[in-house]
Amino acid sequence: MKNRFLWLLSAGHLFTDLNQGALPAILPFLIAEYNLSYAAAAGLVFAASFVSSIIQPFFGYLADKSSKLWLIPGGILLAGCGLATVGFLSNYWLIFAAVTVSGIGIAAFHPEAARMANKVSGEKKGTGISIFSVGGNAGFALGPVIATASLLLWGLKGTLILIVPAAIMAVITASQAGKLHEFQKLAQKAGGIRNEAEEKEEWAPFSRLTVVLFCRSIMFYSLNTFLPLYWINILQQSKATGGSALTILFTVGAISTLFGGQLSDRFGYTTIIRIGFVVLLPFLMVFNMVSNVSLATLLLIPIGVALFAPNSPMTVLGQKYLPNRLGLASGVTLGLAVSVGGIAAPALGWFADNYGLPHAMQLVTYLSIVSAVMAFTLPVPQSDTNTAGKSSV
Fold first, then answer.
1. HSE (CB half, 13 Å, CA atoms) of 298?
2. For residues 309 and 182, is the Cβ–Cβ distance under 8 A?
3. Is the separation of the CB atoms in 101 and 82 below 8 Å?
4. Between the CA atoms of 250, 252, 258 and 262, what dihedral angle is there, to the nearest 10 degrees?
5. If residue 199 lies in a helix (H) or strand (E), which one and from where to where?
6. Has residue 85 been placed in a domain?
7. What is the rounded average pLDDT for all residues in the chain?
8. Which label site among 52, 133, 155, 342 has the fewest CB atoms less than 10 Å from its CB?
9. pTM above 0.85, yes or no
10. Tell me: the pLDDT tens digits for 13-69?
11. Structural domain includes residue 390
12. How many domains does the chain divide into?
């Protein structure tokens, strides 16, 4: 395992997904400034997600054909620059377009970066992908902090600050692209990376895994979009406190992602996925019943653990189901399947407008039931079964 490259890719993941984490924290300021409805605000999450969900598998397909490392710095820069312009726009559809540009950058980054993370992880792919994934979770946690602080200090034009981390990380990753390329060539030449082309692809289990990812994505985006608004409008807290709730959730999530990957290498990917979704259900049910701010905040800890611990095991499992198409598998598990939550966000926003945020949050609980059931239909990948069989001979 090349930890130096893994942490570089993880840092790139952080500075890319920082923009996804910042967007929900920006929404209350846009609502206050332009009197947007919940549905209109959720539509901006849709803008960042829809293009990403459609394009990301395509970028993954291109990455499988031939390595395109320039997508990593290019994606980081585009993701930050798109969202940075939001505070300077007053027309809703121009804001929508700027957020869409950010989504394209996010789509460009993930498949190639995840494919490279798989390659440099060696045999400990759960741990390696968890290191890569924890960067994204950390970005979601850091995004609300940066966005909220900047907007409280400078108003909506404070979004400009998002250009700074994106530009810095784009330069750093671009400067290391040559070394990553050389490592890939040397590893292939030395036989350090096994030939996945001889392995069978398992499309049926991959499809069921995608359903689980769909459900998790909608749950994730529901919390990501509505948690600050829930804190402000239901629990009667400040905008800063609403952003802090997201930070707590994603900080716990970042830690849980790292441990989830390590545990999956030891106990199996499907085991960690099943445990996570089974544990998530009762805590979500209790969360929907409480009105005390302190208790609601404490519940974010087990919810974050249960929601994020299966994250990297699901990405690795998807790559193992499609060993010949790592980029495509990453594009689906990190793109299409994940972004479907953003696509569903406007519908959830409409539901919240008409029936209230508490009822919208209850929908998340129902989805956790589906996720838990579907998780038990996921088999151990054939590649792992074959490896276990060979080692026992």
1. 7
2. no
3. yes
4. -140
5. none
6. yes
7. 85
8. 155
9. no
10. 999 999 988 998 899 899 989 988 878 888 887 787 777 777 877 887 777 776 678
11. no
12. 1
Q: For residue 392, tell me if it sits in a domain.
A: no
**Side chain identity, residue 50:** F
pLDDT in tens, 195-239: 444 568 899 999 999 999 999 988 988 887 788 888 888 888 887
Cβ(334)–Cβ(56) under 8 Å?
yes
**H-helix or E-strand spanning residue 90:** none
Q: Does residue 186 form part of some domain?
A: yes
Higher per-residue confidence, 61 vs 269? 269
Taking the C-alpha atoms of residue 97 and residue 58, their distance in angstroms, rounded to an integer, is 21
Parent domain of 185 = 3-384
Residue 276 is part of a domain; what is its CATH number? 1.20.1250.20
From residue 318, alpha-carbon distances to 209, 212, 242 in Å are 7, 11, 34
Q: Please state the rounded mean pLDDT for residues 148-158.
A: 93
Tokens at 194, concatenated: 């096994």
Record the tokens describing residue 107, joined without a space.
Answer: 């789509």
**CA 353 to mean position of chain CA atoms:** 26
DSSP 8-state secondary structure symbol assigned to residue 123: T
| Type of residue found at 39 | A
CA dist., res. 316 & res. 335, Å (int): 14
Distance CA 156, CA 86 (A): 8
Q: Which of 100, 88, 232, 102 has its CA nearest to residue 155?
A: 88
Residue 148: pLDDT above 80?
yes
Q: What is the residue whose two structure tokens read 């909220």?
A: 148
Question: What pLDDT score was predicted for residue 147?
Answer: 93
* Tokens 């500075």 sit on residue: 15
Q: What are phi and psi of 192, to 5 degrees?
A: -70, -20
Rounded to 5°, angle at Cα 327 from 253 and 256: 10
